[in-house]
Specification:
5 helices; binds S-adenosylmethionine; eight-stranded antiparallel β-barrel
Length: 274
C-alpha cells in the first residue's frame, strides 16, 4: 500500500511532468498563440473589432433572444457571435481569415459557449444567409450595398444590424449610439426585412394598390368606388400599417394575402390580384 503522502508526491510529480512536456512541445514547435493586429488586412475589409459596448447595443437593437439564429458576416475574433451565444442564441461567424476562425473557436471555448457559437472559414458573399433571424456586420458601405439585394430576399422580419455603415437609400428602422466607453465606431443601424407588398390587392368591395420603397408604402384604397390615398404606410417584417379614409389599417402579410383590423371597427382582408 502507498502512504497518502507518497501518493500526493507522485501525483504532483506527474502533474509537473505533464506541464513541462506540453510546454516544451509548444516551445519546440515554435508556435505562439496567434495575435491579431487591429487594421490587419482581410479579403474585402480590414479587421477592426466592434467595441464591446456597441456589440451589446447591436444585439439589444435586434432584440436577440435564445430563439434567434445570429450570423455575423466577417466575424473577426468572434466577439459578436460569442456575445449572442451568451444570450442563449445559436450564432455563426463567417470569416475568411482561417487564423481568426481558430482564434474565435478558442475564444468561444474560453467563454464556454462552443455548443452555441460556431465559426466557418468562408467568403461572406457566398454564404447561405437564409437560416438567419439576425445578421450582424461591420463591413463597408459598398459591401453593404452588394449584400442588399440578397438581404431584401430574406424572410420578412429578419433583423440586420450594421456597425457604422448604412445601406444606401434603404433608411434604417433604428439607430443606436454608444456614448460611454466607446471612442470610434460607436453607431449602429438596424433594418427589418420588409414583406413584399407592391402591386394590386383585391378586397371584397374594392382594391388596394401599393407602391413600395423598402419598408415605405404609398398608394390608393378603393372601397365601393370611393378612392382615397393611403398615408403613413409602413411594412415592418410581416406587419403592415397605413392610414386611409380617416382610419388606421393594421394587418399581417401571409402567403395567402393580407388581413387585419380597422381602427374605426371591423376587419379587412386582401388577396393578390388585379
Ligand atoms: C471590420 S472587421 C469586423 C469584425 C467583427 N465582425 C466585429 O464586429 O468585431 C471585418 C472582418 O471581415 C473579415 N472579412 C473581410 N472580407 C471577408 C470576406 N469576403 N468574407 C469573410 N470575411 C471577410 C475580415 O477578415 C475581418 O475580420
Amino acid at each position: 500500500m502507498i502512504a497518502s503522502g507518497t501518493l500526493r508526491r507522485l501525483l504532483l510529480l506527474l502533474f509537473v511532468s505533464i506541464v513541462f512536456a506540453s510546454s516544451s512541445a509548444w516551445a519546440q514547435s515554435g508556435k505562439k498563440e496567434y495575435q491579431p493586429r487591429v487594421g490587419q488586412g482581410g479579403k474585402d475589409v480590414i479587421w477592426v473589432p466592434t467595441p464591446q459596448p456597441l456589440v451589446e447595443k447591436m444585439l439589444d437593437a435586434a432584440k436577440v433572444t435564445p430563439k434567434d439564429y445570429v450570423i455575423d458576416l466577417g466575424s473577426g475574433d468572434g466577439r459578436t457571435v460569442i456575445t449572442a451565444a451568451k444570450r442563449g442564441a445559436k450564432a455563426l461567424g463567417i470569416e475568411y481569415n482561417p487564423d481568426m476562425v481558430e482564434l474565435s473557436k478558442r475564444n468561444a471555448a474560453k467563454e464556454q459557449v462552443s455548443d452555441k457559437a460556431s465559426f466557418v472559414k468562408a467568403d461572406l458573399f457566398e454564404a447561405d444567409l437564409s437560416p438567419a433571424t439576425v445578421i450582424t456586420m461591420f463591413l463597408l458601405p459598398d459591401i453593404n450595398l452588394r449584400l442588399r439585394p440578397k438581404i431584401l430576399n430574406l424572410k420578412p422580419g429578419t433583423r440586420i444590424v450594421s456597425n457604422s455603415f448604412t445601406m444606401g437609400d434603404w433608411t434604417a428602422d433604428d439607430t443606436v449610439v454608444v456614448k460611454e466607453g466607446c471612442v470610434s465606431y460607436c453607431t449602429a443601424y438596424l433594418w427589418i426585412v420588409p414583406a413584399k407588398v407592391e402591386g394590386s390587392w383585391q378586397l371584397p368591395d374594392g382594391e388596394l394598390t401599393l407602391t413600395q420603397t423598402y419598408q415605405m408604402i404609398s398608394g390608393t384604397l378603393n372601397r365601393g368606388g370611393d378612392v382615397v390615398p393611403i398615408a403613413n404606410g409602413k411594412v415592418n417584417g410581416d406587419r403592415i400599417t397605413f392610414n386611409a379614409g380617416g382610419a388606421l389599417y393594421t394587418g399581417r402579410v401571409t402567403s395567402n394575402g393580407m388581413e387585419g383590423t380597422i381602427s374605426t371597427g371591423g376587419e379587412w382582408k386582401a388577396t393578390h390580384g388585379g
